[in-house]
Design a protein that fits this description.
By secondary structure, the chain is an alpha/beta fold. It contains 6 helices and 8 strands, in the order E-H-E-E-E-H-H-E-H-E-E-H-E-H. The structure holds flavin mononucleotide.
């Protein structure tokens, strides 16, 4: 069954803003006369009442979705397991565009898929993010300089807007199907 007049929530965790920018780009792609899309930071969402589908995004930090994003799925799992859900993540490893970094992106994706037994996403978007060392504490800046020297990753905005739009187009139809209970 296709839902007319859908309402979709894109909820995101973001420490430095790049994941929020991706949430806005997905919103622009999915919004139309039949679809209202809201984007909200995780801290502003207390319930999911009125939404037909939810997209949840977070940066990868220390090889995982942020604790806040994982906690969000656990808190709202009873609702999330009844409606279409998609996840996405931002990370720096994908900015390298090597076979090794693509494999790492796939590992992040598989861990995320397996992280919640009862809330399974229709799709997981894997996006390269952005890193601005000047906005970090001295400790993090030093740690990232070290990691970047080791991996070859470069500071800057590596978000691929074409890839983000293509992923959004790809999930658009799938978010319209209501699961049979
Ligand atoms: C504390 C911290 C840990 C991170 N750990 C990883 C990591 O394990 N793997 C990776 O690919 N990127 C890692 N990153 C990079 C972020 O995922 C990337 O910069 C993302 O775009 C940041 O999103 P935000 O601007 O919404 O906070 C890390 C960034 C920070 C600040």
């Amino acid at each position: 069954m296709i839902t007319q007049n859908r309402k979709i929530l894109i909820v995101y965790a973001s420490q430095f803003g790049s994941t929020g920018g991706i949430a806005d780009a997905i919103k622009n792609e999915l919004s139309n006369e039949n679809t209202i899309v809201d984007t909200k930071p995780i801290k502003d969402v207390t319930d999911l009442v009125g939404y037909d589908a939810v997209i949840i995004g977070s940066p990868i930090q220390f090889d995982k979705w942020t604790p806040k994003a994982r906690e969000f799925v656990r808190i709202h799992r009873d609702t999330l397991k009844q409606i279409p859900v998609a996840y996405f993540f931002t990370c720096m490893v994908l900015s390298l565009q090597t076979e090794k970094s693509k494999r790492q992106g796939q590992v992040y994706s598989e861990h995320l898929f397996n992280a919640f037994t009862d809330v399974k996403p229709l799709a997981i978007g894997k996006f390269s993010g952005a890193l601005d060392l000047t906005r970090m504490s001295i400790f993090l800046r030093l740690a990232f300089r070290f990691i970047m020297a080791l991996t070859g990753a470069k500071e800057g905005d590596h978000r691929d807007w074409n890839a983000i739009r293509a992923w959004s187009k790809g999930i658009d139809q799938r978010l319209s199907f209501v699961r049979e209970s």
